[in-house]
């Protein structure tokens, strides 16, 4: 029986997440499973051995105790998505399964671990990070004492950017640590992982989009993250 990788549904460029995993990546032992808040296929969560929490619309602010009155917010939130993906993450933690949080997925994990969000990066921040027609591109610095550095083997790199919300030291969960920062704004965290990794699942969160980054097949901040994730999924013993 093939192991399944659960990918949370988003209305934003979803096919890119599926395309990120080639047939060579999946081989004969892995397959992808769409986990859809629209279908509420909760039972399928328990069939998966690894997960991708995807990007998309802003998280409902009441989940982190803030107002919905902020710049560049959506007309409508998707609270049902937030709650569905919370079930995914709680299952990840309970069963110690590998997970990657991408953009919104990173922000959601920070919220679920007790953190908050910068609700809008402001004019200067949005000039660097917010997608208008195409992804922005910028450099990041990677913390050498991090799992991300162990995976990527690089102190810096180039990533894409498509967000107007974010995480900084002031809203970071006490359970998490930053593993990368934007070189354009030292306060904007570009990646997260567990601070204390004892008895914790493999988890890497990134603010960029590795599934659609330029030269993703050779950029270690996409390819090596994917390779390590797949390795971790393959280690999972299924019953």
Could you explain how this protein is built, in words?
- The chain is of the alpha/beta class.
- It is about 25% helix and about 25% strand.
- Strands 2-1-3-4-9-8-7-5-6 form a 9-stranded mixed β-sheet, sandwiched between helices.
- A hairpin with a 2-residue loop joins strand 7 and strand 8.
- The protein is globular, with a radius of gyration of 17 Å.
- The model has no long low-confidence stretch (mean pLDDT about 95).
CATH class annotation: Alpha Beta
CATH topology value: Rossmann fold
| Rounded mean pLDDT score | 94
Name the helicity range: 25-40%
Runs with pLDDT <50, length 5+? Answer: none
In total, how many domains does the architecture comprise? 1
Order of helices and strands: EHHEEHEHHEHEEEEH
Q: Can you count the beta strands?
A: 9
Q: How far is the first residue's CA from the last residue's CA?
A: 10 Å
Number of DSSP helical runs: 7
Tell me about the biggest sheet?
9 strands, mixed
Strand order of the largest sheet: 2-1-3-4-9-8-7-5-6
CA-atom Rg in angstroms: 17 Å
Level-2 CATH architecture: 3-Layer(aba) Sandwich
Approximate strand percentage: 15-25%
**In one word, what is the shape?**
globular
CATH homologous superfamily descriptor: Class I glutamine amidotransferase (GATase) domain
Structural class: alpha/beta
């Amino acid at each position: 029986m093939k192991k399944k990788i659960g990918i949370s549904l988003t209305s934003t460029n979803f096919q890119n997440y599926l395309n990120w995993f080639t047939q060579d990546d999946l081989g004969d032992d892995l397959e992808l499973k769409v986990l859809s808040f629209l279908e509420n296929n909760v039972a399928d969560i328990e069939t998966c051995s690894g997960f991708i929490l995807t990007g998309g619309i802003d998280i409902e602010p009441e989940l982190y105790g803030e107002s919905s009155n902020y710049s560049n917010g959506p007309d409508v939130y998707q609270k049902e998505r937030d709650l569905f993906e919370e079930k995914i993450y709680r299952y990840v933690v309970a069963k110690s399964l590998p997970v990657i949080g991408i953009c919104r997925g990173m922000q959601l994990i920070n919220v679920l671990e007790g953190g908050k969000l910068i609700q809008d990066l402001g004019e200067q921040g949005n000039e660097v990070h917010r997608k208008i027609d195409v992804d922005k591109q910028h450099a990041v610095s990677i913390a050498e004492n991090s799992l991300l550095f162990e995976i990527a083997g690089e102190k810096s790199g180039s990533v894409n950017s498509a967000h107007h919300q974010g995480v900084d030291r002031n809203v970071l969960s006490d359970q998490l640590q930053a593993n990368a920062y934007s070189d354009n704004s030292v306060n904007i965290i570009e990646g997260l992982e567990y601070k204390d990794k004892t008895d914790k699942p493999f988890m890497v969160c990134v603010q960029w989009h590795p599934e659609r980054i330029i030269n993703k097949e050779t950029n270690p901040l996409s390819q090596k993250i994917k390779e390590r994730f797949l390795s971790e999924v393959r280690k999972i013993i299924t019953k």
